[in-house]
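Dear colleague,

Thank you for sharing your sequence with our group. We've completed the structure prediction you requested, and as agreed, I am returning the results in plain text so they can be pasted directly into your records. Please verify that the sequence below matches your submission; if there's any discrepancy, let me know and we will rerun it promptly.
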Amino acid sequence: MNELTLDEASEMILLQGQQDFALATGELSSWVPGPTKLRYARCILKMRNDWGYCEAEINNWVRLFVGDSKWDYPALYPCGRVMEPDYFTETVGFVAHVRWASNMEPENGIYQLAGNYARRGYMQAKNLTGAGAKVSNLTVLVSECVHRLNKLNADSPTTWRTVLDQLKFYDNPVNPTIEYIDHDEEEIGWVNNKGKVRSTGFGQFRHKITAAKKQINS
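Please find the predicted structure tokens below.
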């Protein structure tokens, strides 16, 4: 898993002495990697202390960023400085991404935040099934869908059609994995971690669901 450098560890220690740091990172899961948590804190503290946004305004911008409604950049930050659209988008997008991943199962969230190697390290440390296997963006998304749906419907088995219908709902709101779902061709188009579109048939998709269920029950 990703470790903090000496400089980052020193910065983390200094920030942890500030009340704002605890408020900024308190909502994140404990397993979020240190470097990610540090960058997240920097973003939140930048939005609060430098740009002048309150907590409610930050949350609102995150909701707008991941939502379907259209919105415009304000001309100025609350502090009175001229808006920097690219930097603003990068900052809010990162906050949205980390919050989304922090609510996932640990092995899936770590994959989204720190990659395959970090995920495998976490699973090996926890002696989880499948720790040595590489996974794809689609495999991680399917795993998360099955976990979430099982929790919502503990008394009834989750069907593959239900997982298919919920893929986009549980997808990454900042960098979506699902490109398209073609019911006529029975094919799913999805984006791998190199940004290339891949396709998976419904049959292989069902196998991924079966594997995810076995991992949960192991």
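Summary note from our side: Residues 187 and 201 are 4 Å apart (CA to CA).

Kind regards,
the structure core
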